[in-house]
Write a structure and sequence with these properties.
By secondary structure, the protein is of the alpha+beta class. 35% of the residues lie in helices and 27% in strands. Helix 2 packs across helix 6 and helix 9 crosses helix 12.
């Protein structure tokens, strides 16, 4: 694989692009800043959707769908929101094309200018809250727990496949509540849903925290987040959950009659994760030989590769044995493929499935069957072992569970080894440049200091951990008093 992929040590950014492109996850498109998600990548996203969708519905949420286009005036109703997204908005100004009478091809018809421009949604708070005004009249209508799976557009100048593209896929939850306490409870609940998904399905350990005022979502009172650490020591925001207070309810006049028969504004939340999670999987687990996918999300969990010779009877025995194994694996809910394509050699197949991150590979030849065995290779560690054919399905089921757990444990060990406490500015810069990872340091709580540290080092406060202990100290930059440590890192 060294001839196929750039080494992580040589060029991490190019290694990542190689993995995404050559691992069959995505491709560049004809539209600048947008990507094509290929079948292998989309199957991975579909598995994420399936799990998350069930988790949302298990917590009482329902799916709906809202328009792609948002009237420009809607964004003006919440000042912080429009300021936060104004520079990223794509704007529709006309509704018709025509042929250029001068032979210049298709042009925009100047007579077809919209009376009000439409914004291609960067996020849906405004269009959704304009709708909720019609849905909420009484406390009996609350809570309103809605999620939508959609695409959004944020006009990015510097893009990277999955991590930052002009158009991306995501889900966005938008809920309305009768009290502040209920809304905050919802915000924290959904953060826990995201954290559980990241750790139990993606095998990516995360830190739950709250964003600083500088980093919170435009229009929110508080933004909660899960932060993950990638193999190059940079952080990745893997999900956010926002407590919106009554800001959007007031902007769109969403009021309800409470139990005391008095009118009040509803309390709101929004929360979302995107196809950025696919990028997180790549960077958290993969190696110089290709993708390494956690079994609970892998589109294909097991591949069986036959090792044929010229003996047709032996070939039939291999095919029949593979068919039995496949049936037993499928009965356990394990996705499996039998690759008996004669057009490619077993060695090529091994390399291809390794590149694509298939968790378990089973190889069987005539001699293996004579011994009642099959060779089993696990993708994460590249270890191989002979397994008995009798009870093989149960053994593979256990192996997949072991791989899932051990992938998480390796990532957790890496994350914990790369959280460094520092108390001086010199140490802060040294760790950031030489070790990277999360830096636990004191901060004086001012946005000015936060911004200055970012300008000087490109490191940001990723979060204030929710389990933070109060600890008297001095700000790593200013020396001013501080009551707790926060986590800094350079990030994607």
């Amino acid at each position: 694989m060294s001839s196929v992929l750039t080494s992580r040590k040589d060029d991490y950014a190019q290694w990542y692009n190689d993995i995404v492109l050559k691992g069959g996850l995505a491709d560049y498109s004809a539209v600048r800043g947008c990507m094509v998600i290929k079948p292998h990548g989309y199957a991975l996203w579909e598995n994420m959707q399936h799990v998350l969708d069930k988790m949302f519905k298990d917590t009482g949420h329902q799916n709906a769908y809202f328009p792609l286009f948002i009237p420009k005036s809607f964004l003006s109703k919440e000042a912080a929101h429009v300021e936060g997204f104004a520079k990223e908005c794509a704007v529709v100004t006309h509704y018709r094309l025509k042929n250029d009478p001068n032979g210049g091809g298709v042009i925009v018809d100047p007579e077809a200018k919209l009376e009000e421009e439409l914004i291609v949604r960067p996020t849906s708070e405004t269009i959704i809250w304009s709708t909720y005004k019609n849905w909420v009249q009484s406390y009996r209508d609350l809570p309103l727990l809605i999620n939508q799976w959609a695409n959004v557009v944020r006009w990015e100048m510097r893009t990277r496949l999955f991590l930052r593209t002009a158009e991306f896929l995501w889900q966005e939850g938008h809920t309305a509540h009768a009290t502040r306490e209920e809304a905050i409870e919802e915000t924290r609940k959904m953060l826990d849903v995201y954290a559980t998904f990241a750790e139990e399905y993606m095998a990516v350990p995360v830190i739950r925290g709250v964003k600083t005022a500088n980093e919170r979502f435009a229009g929110a009172e508080d933004t909660y987040c899960i932060e993950a650490l990638m193999q190059d020591g940079k952080a990745l925001q893997a999900g956010t959950s926002h407590f919106l207070g009554q800001n959007f309810a007031k902007a769109f006049d969403v009021q309800f009659s409470n139990k005391e028969n008095k009118m009040d504004y509803v309390w709101a939340t929004s929360w979302g994760v995107s196809t950025r999670l696919v990028g997180a999987l790549v960077m958290a687990h993969s190696d110089d030989n290709g993708l390494v996918l956690p079994p609970r999300l892998a589109p294909l969990q097991v591949v069986i590769v036959p090792i044929y010779n010229k003996d047709m009877e032996a070939r039939k025995r291999i095919d029949d044995t593979a068919a039995t194994i496949m049936k037993e694996l499928k009965a356990k809910g394990i996705s499996v493929k039998y690759d008996n394509d004669d057009n490619t050699r077993p060695g090529w197949k091994f390399a291809e499935y390794e590149l694509k991150g298939i968790p378990v590979r089973i190889a069987m030849g005539p001699r293996d069957l004579e011994n009642g065995q099959a060779e089993v290779a696990r993708r994460d560690t590249k270890e191989k072992a002979s397994y008995q054919l009798e009870g093989l399905a149960a053994s593979i089921e256990q192996l997949l569970a072991d791989i899932q757990q051990q992938m998480f444990e390796r990532a957790l060990k890496f994350r914990d080894e790369n959280i460094t406490k520092v108390d001086s500015w010199d140490d802060f810069v040294k760790v950031l440049d030489e070790k990277a990872g999360f830096i636990s340091a004191h901060w004086d709580g001012t946005p000015e200091t936060e911004e200055k540290i970012k300008e000087m080092t490109k490191a940001t406060i990723r979060c204030i951990p929710l389990n933070n202990e109060q600890e008297a100290g001095k700000c790593v930059l200013t020396g001013n008093a501080s009551s707790q440590r926060v986590l800094f890192a350079r990030a994607y």
